[in-house]
Amino acid sequence: MKKNVFIVGMDSFNLEKLKKLPEATECNFHAALDINEIRNVPGYDMAALITTAERRIKETPGGIHAVVSYFDFPATDLVPILAKTFGVPGPSPESIFKCQHKYWSRLEQQQVIPDNIPEFCAFDPFEEDPLASIELEPPFWIKPFRSFKSFLAFRIKNRDQFHEHIKELRENINFIHEPFLYLLKRYNMPPKIANMRESCLVEKTLSGHQCTLEGYVFNGDVVIYGIVDSIKDQHFSSFSRYEYPSSLPNRVQDQMSRVCKQVIKHIGLDQSVFNVEFFYEPSCNEVYLLEINPRISQSHADLFEKVHGISHHRVMLQIALGRKPDQLEWQGQFNYAAKFMHRTFEPGKVVKAPSREEIESIAREIPGTIINPHVSEGKQLSELQMQDSYSYELADIFIGANERDELVDKYHRVLDKISFSIEKED
């Protein structure tokens, strides 16, 4: 009998990656929750989502053998809850929440890697004068305790900028904070965390070369199997592309790996995949941990597939099935791969988007290219959910190359052929 693997946030792109894995022949993939139930929704009723997922699992003949997700909130938060409920391999809810709660995570990191994190503090955005309670001086970042894709994260340079952005933060923070708080309280997280009056984090800005370590923990053994560079737009804080493998020197990659393993073990994360974001600051030859995400980055999946011949969905699936992951071999079609986030930085209306025929034509002309549009004609960019605070994503463009410099060259060739047209707002 095949093993039933339940996905929190099933979508077609990642399902195709899963179906290519060697383990797919022994698995049936089911939606604990569909992607449309956790994205572009008016709100998150966590009790209802948990009930729906549990009902679907119980109603499936043969029961459950594994539960996975490659998406952020609320999917990653629900995986350990479902794993514990049904007795399948998975991390503890507390270890996941320690990673996801930005302030709690910083407190844990401070105990073991104090020299590798920025100064930080918590604050309540609804205080009459929240800036008065912040001891740090700008520049710094403000962000909710729980978020994703840099939603409601703002870089603050001065007092006026803080007061400008605090309004937007107040209006929108409860979209994720309230349902996350529900989980912390329902699953008995420490009262000093679950009952905090504060809901936002302030931390000093980091700079340098940004990258992400992809890894897993199996029976307490922490393994890093890939490092992906995160390259930002020249004039904004938004990412322009992810590039694999990393261009950082081996000694820096080893330094990051040591710090990463130390904090992952301290948090108690086990039977789980993760990705951890770092900065390397060449001026002081030091590495700084930005955040821990206890899931694979599905944004990197096609990069691993292009370079290794198989996506790191396999690592996720093997861990969820209770197996030690196989080592990734360098057997892909390309030596390098990148995911480009094609963006615009001003609001407006989409008046033209590329057709399927255009996308297929580009893929034929530039082999290894995948284009996933996020918008369609008539879409108001301001209606897009979970964008970062400075831009709107129009499409993801995946590209493979045999030389690193080819990646950007191919991307520009794609932009010359792809047709997005935005009618700017006044």
Question: If you had to describe this structure to a student in words, what would you say it looks like?
Answer:
This protein is α+β, with helices and mostly antiparallel strands and 426 residues long. The protein has three domains: 3-99 and 206-320, 2-Layer Sandwich (D-amino Acid Aminotransferase, Chain A, domain 1); 119-204, Dna Ligase, domain 1, CATH 3.30.1490; 336-424, Aldehyde Oxidoreductase, domain 3 (Alpha-Beta Complex), CATH 3.90.1170. 33% of the residues lie in helices and 27% in strands. The protein contains 13 helices and 17 strands. The protein has helices at residues 12-19, 46-59, 75-86, 93-100, 102-112, 159-172, 174-186, 191-194, 250-267, 301-308, 313-320, 356-365, 404-417; strands at residues 3-10, 27-34, 66-68, 120-123, 140-144, 154-156, 200-204, 209-218, 221-232, 239-244, 272-281, 286-293, 336-344, 348-352, 370-373, 392-401, 421-424. Strands 12-11-8-9-10-13-16-15 form an eight-stranded antiparallel beta sheet. The chain has a four-stranded antiparallel beta sheet with strand order 4-7-5-6, sandwiched between helices. Helix 3 (75-86) runs antiparallel to helix 4 (93-100), helix 4 crosses helix 5 (102-112) and helix 5 (102-112) crosses helix 9. It is globular and about 55 Å long.
Number of domains: 3
Shape: globular
Q: Element order, helices and strands?
A: EHEHEHHHEEEHHHEEEEHEEHHEEHEEHE
- How large is the count of helical segments? 13
Unreliable residue runs: none
Name the strands of the widest sheet in spatial order: 12-11-8-9-10-13-16-15
Query: Considering the protein shown, what is the CATH homologous superfamily of the largest domain?
Result: ATP-grasp fold, B domain
The secondary-structure class comes to alpha+beta
CATH classification class of the largest domain: Alpha Beta
CATH architecture annotation name of the largest domain = 2-Layer Sandwich
| Measured distance between first and last alpha carbons | 60 Å
Mean pLDDT: 94
CATH level-3 fold name of the largest domain: D-amino Acid Aminotransferase, Chain A, domain 1
Estimated helix fraction: 25-40%
Provide the gyration radius in Å: 21 Å
Strand content bin: 25-35%
What can be said about the biggest beta sheet?
8 strands, antiparallel
Total beta strand runs: 17
